[in-house]
Every structure is written in structure tokens, then in C-alpha cells.
Amino acid sequence: MVKAVQIRKTGGPEVLEFIDKNIDIPEGREVLIRHTAVGLNRYDTEHRKGTRRVKNLPAVLGMEAVGVIEGLGAKADECLKIGDRVGYCTALPGAYCEKRIVHQKYLIRIPDDISDEYLIRIPDDISDEVVASVLFKGMTAHYLINQSYKVKPGTFVLVHGANGGLGGIICQWIKDKKGMAIGSVSSDDKMLQSGCTHMINYNDKEAVDKIMEITKGNGVGVVYDPIGYATSKVSFESLGNFGIYVSYGQISGAAPLSFSLLSSRSLFATGTSIYHYKQNRFTLVLTAMEIFEMLRKKLLTAKINKKYQFDEIVQAHHDIENRKVSGLNIIKF
């Protein structure tokens, strides 16, 4: 039996419940992982509230985790060893537990045709806590700035939620790409730089005017938005001709869209999911390698804001709901 946190129905933090859960023996290419750290993500709260659908209820939440291999299925690759440190962030939700069985295809490892040493061992100088705090967010930031819209030197980018963990990583990565990040937050007291070239308060009545002043009237090339309805007016009025609105969340509800709005400046709009951009094993592994290298070179900094104990998960969700935490946060075992 292992301890886990599940939901039987969607709703507020009160629907989270602690349970004792049976755990099977790994079969085939499955791996049993004992978690050491779990990342806290916006996806967790969206799954809990039902904004983002969970396939079946009851369900254990949690998108990403780092841990140690404790068991291997009979067909697991020979490179995988008991005691190896591994991480994952694209398996189905289920990380809110002490131990979990995960298919080896979700582990961060190099495909068989590259080398006999094809397991990416998490670098010794990067802690489990840091990996758990940035793996999912780093993967998301990578596809946003390289695939959803390719940020180039000099590109003006509006990043909503810049004070959040993912927003901060996006801003740092844009800076490395020599783009110009305009960080957007909900109040003046949250206007920390987070690697941004400029900062604005999206609730400021002059927010759009300030963005246009920064961009010399041209508007931004892309908006990265996890918020939705509350930021939509600023988002679309700030985009320049042929600009693209990239949604990767709907914290405040869906952004209103219409073809007349898009045709006003020949704009584009897209919704994204990590499961589509990082479903290929080779892409998943190469992205992980890039994240680790950027961490080691200090091109990405991962300052963990708060470390919750496993029995504090409900409190963590309350804190997220009440905006008492920002930045990178994890659950420790």
C-alpha cells in the first residue's frame, strides 16, 4: 500500500482526499518509481477543477515527478537499473503518490539507436527538487518559444503571468534567444523582472498604450497566455499585424474569439498541449538534455519558492487558489 491523493469529483481543494492505494508489480516495459519530489503545476489545479478534463474518476493528480527506480518489468530495457534517478512529465496524471508504476517510454532517456548508454541520468549537480520544479515547465516553455511561435532576435513578446514559475522560465528563455520579453502581471507589487526586458500590469488601463510605446507602435509578435478571459483584451489589442495569440491555459475562463477580431489585423490564435508537442521520444529526450544544459550554464535559474510536504498538498492547492504562492513550488517526500 502507498499513500496517494486523489479526486472523486472535480471542484475546489476540498475534493482532494488522502487514500491508501494498492500498487501492482511492474510488468512488461513498466517501471516502479519511488518519488522523491513532485512538481506543482497549473495543470494540477485545472484537472482538479475540471477545466482540463481527467480521463477517468476517481483519479490521482500530478503531472511531473522525480524519483528512484525500485522495480522493473520483465521487458524493461537493460540500461534501466534499480536505484537509477529518473524523471517524467508527459505520462498521464498520477504523480501525487509515494510510488507509482510508469511505462519506460515516459522516462527521460535516449532512444536505443543512439548509444548503449541511453539512459539520461539526471546530472548529479542538479537536485531532484530542481528537476521536479522545472521539467514540465521547461518542456512547455521550449515548445512555446521554438514551435508554437519561433522567437527570433529582436522579437517583442508579451508574456502573461510572468511572475509564475512557467512565466519566469519563458522570459529567461526569450532573453537567451535575444528576444524582448514584456512581462505581464496582475498588480504592481508583482512587477519583478523575471528576466523580462519590460514589465506591465495588465489591469492598468494604459497597459496597451505602454506596450505600443515599448514596441514603437508595432505591437508584439506573439502573446503567451495561461490566463484567458481576464487578459484577452490586452492580448489582442497588443498584437501587431499577423501576430499570434498562443493559449496554454484558461485560469480566468476562455478568451472570447471571433473571425472579425482575428481579421482586424490578420491575426492567428492557437491552443497548445505538451502531449502533442512532446509525444515523440526523440523530441522529449533532446528537450530534457537542453533544459539540463541551460540549468548547468545558468541560462535558466530555478529558485524554488516553497517546498510543501506530501501531507500539505491540500494547503498547497488553497495557496495557489488564493494566489499566496508564485514562482516554482514542489511537494517533497
UniProtKB/TrEMBL annotation:
CDD domains: QOR2 (cd05286)
Keywords (A to Z) from UniProt: NADP, Oxidoreductase
Residues of the Enoyl reductase (ER) domain: 11-331
Name of a matching Pfam family: ADH_zinc_N
UniProt GO cellular component terms: cytosol
Tree of life domain: Eukaryota
Coiled-coil segments on the chain, per record: none
GO molecular function ontology, one term from the record: NADPH binding
SUPFAM superfamilies (UniProt xref): GroES-like, NAD(P)-binding Rossmann-fold domains
InterPro entries xrefs: ADH-like_C, ADH-like_N, ER, GroES-like_sf, NAD(P)-bd_dom_sf, QOR-like
Protein name: Alcohol dehydrogenase, C-terminal,NAD(P)-binding domain,GroES-like,Polyketide synthase, enoylreductase
Phylogenetic lineage: Eukaryota, Metazoa, Ecdysozoa, Arthropoda, Hexapoda
